[in-house]
Amino acid sequence: MDDKVPISLVQAPGSSGVPLVFSIAAIKRLRELGVAGILTGTLPAATQQNAFLGIPLRLMIEEAAWLVEEGFAYLVCGGKLLEDAVGNLGAEDVAMMQKKAEESFEEQRAFKRQQHIEKLQRLGITKQDGGEEDSRLLEASLFVETKNESTLLKHKEAQFDIAVLQKKIVDNLLSHGKNHNDYLMYRALRSQGYFLSPGARFGGRFIAYPGDPLRYHSHLTVQACLDYRHEPLDLLQLVSGGRLGTGVKKLWVVGGVKDDEEIEFFSVEWAGFG
Amino acid sequence: MNNSEIISLVRNNLVHQQLWTDVDQHELVADQLYVFSGLPPNKLSNDDELLCKEWVIPVELSQYRPGLLTLEVLQSIFDKIKCKRLTLGITNDDGTVVYYFVYKGLHKPKQN
Known about the structure:
Chain B: It comes from Lachancea fermentati (Zygosaccharomyces fermentati). The complex is a heterodimer. Chain A has three domains: 76 residues, MutS, DNA mismatch repair protein, domain I (3-Layer(aba) Sandwich); 62 residues; 96 residues, Trna Endonuclease, Chain: A, domain 1 (3-Layer(aba) Sandwich). Chain A is 42% helix and 19% strand. In chain A, helix 2 crosses helix 8. Chain A starts with a strand and ends with a strand. In chain A, 28% of the residues are buried. By secondary structure, chain B is of the alpha+beta class. Chain B has a single domain, classed as Trna Endonuclease, Chain: A, domain 1 (3-Layer(aba) Sandwich), CATH 3.40.1350.10. Chain B has two helices and five strands; from the N terminus they run H-E-E-E-H-E-E. In chain B, strand 4 and strand 5 form a beta hairpin. The termini of chain B are far apart. At the A-B interface, strand 9, helix 9, strand 10 and strand 11 of A face helix 2, strand 4 and strand 5 of B.
């Protein structure tokens, strides 16, 4: 059994939060579970590019809630975690971090000096010790590694993995969603093996793929959950959604929650005439 | 949905424009709902093996009043007719009729 995946919940004041995943290993694990998410990270130097985005991975709230409910992951409230971690940070910890950084720099210096000497030998130059200028260049070339994950926070995340606390966070997350029944619909589609991604691209609540989105085209545009008994189908929406779906080879799917929390789905497509 | 105007509009459209044959009208009593059965001039989907009887429900696309077609109503029609798919004959006030298939459950897009 793999470890549970920590999902960071990044919360603005008053918001329920955006679930993000920062570790490549965790992203891989989620994909194996059938949760693809959306990569949102970009490079400061190439902010306009959107074809090859990187970490963090952004999840829909339904995805996050499902992962927690199934016991594959737990949510970590980013703000509180940071306050805890920074609040308890002592001089010793800081000294330790500085020591580690200095060790890395020293390693790099030794390596670079050695390389420099070898290069001079290859070129047959016998100049020894370039003095201040050389050491200035050396210092400027040292690489400061920016880690993908915080070592400081990593140990503290696990303290959020308490069933009662997780339930509270998930309930809060879902209560901020537009339609709680969408989560039931998400769960029903997952149990039938579909991969789901946000549906805005094709005018729905979800897009459903029969397998990994990198291997399959999606089959369904799933609409927001309707009231099974009382909410009539909006035929204008059905026509526009069905017509669009025909153009992109997708069925337009509506679903409603019955009394027993079962979801009844109906698939709509243009009949091909009229 | 007991509306004779849209019923005759869909019927005329099926018979004279889409050239369906054996178009019959049935009443689903409890729902006050009418259904047509009929045979199209050719298969409606490449996924069908043979030409088969189709079921069409005339409904009105009302832009101002809420419609009457809920998922529960759809379900009850499927329960009564026991067919593979229903076809909605959606009418507009300009005389347009458009046809959409409804399948129960999740279905695969048709092969072209």
